[in-house]
Fold this sequence. Notes:
By secondary structure, the protein is mainly alpha-helical. It contains 9 helices and no strands.
Amino acid sequence: xxxxxxxxxxxxxxxxxxxxxxxxxxxxxxxxxxxxxxxxxxxxxxxxxxxxxxxxxxxxxxxxxxxxxxxxxxxxxxxxxxxxxxxxxxxxxxxxxxxxxxxxxxxxxxxxxxxxxxxxxxxxxxxxxxxxxxxxxxxxxxxxxxxxxxxxxxxxxxxxxxxxxxxxxxxxxxxxxxxxxxxxxxxxxxxxxxxxxxxxxxxxxxxxxxxxxxxxxxxxxxxxxxxxxxxxxxxxxxxxxxxxxxxxxxxxxxxxxxxxxxx
Length: 263
């Protein structure tokens, strides 16, 4: 019985050990697969987290920039807009656009123009619409400042540059889709562009008209004036001619008829 018992129990124990070994090996393979999958997915996960974090930060900085601008905190608006510059892959024009708009509110017009021109270079499609409107307004205000400073020629030139920015705005900026993407939903893009064009043409024409009298005065001053000696010689010749005619008249009519002859 003892031999029989040993003969019948040994094979199942061996099978169990073999099964356990295979199970352990399978578990190790699964763990390795999971480890490699985790390592392979780690960059994708990090990129996804970075993407979400960047989007959230973009919205946060944009909201902060707008909120500060509304309450005339232009320095705070500019600082928040600078926060959009880091790794700005999605809408690269937004940071310089918001910085330029904030600087325009603070009357830093040359700096604002440079920022908005940078934003215009980075903008694509309908993004250029709002950038062009703000850029034209900034250049127009630079023209107003030049006019107040007495620089009429400089003002006229700046008005012309602003007018060029408006005229070169794509026709698509008059569409409803462009209006939906506007940074200022209360501002109608089409009306704003038309009003800017009419206003700039009027200002430019006014400056040109005011410059015309000065130009005419300069031209008059630049004309050569007759020499005093030449004027004196001409006067002497005229006097001599008058005397000669009087003598001729006396010789022809000694008694005088009392009738004045034409010169």
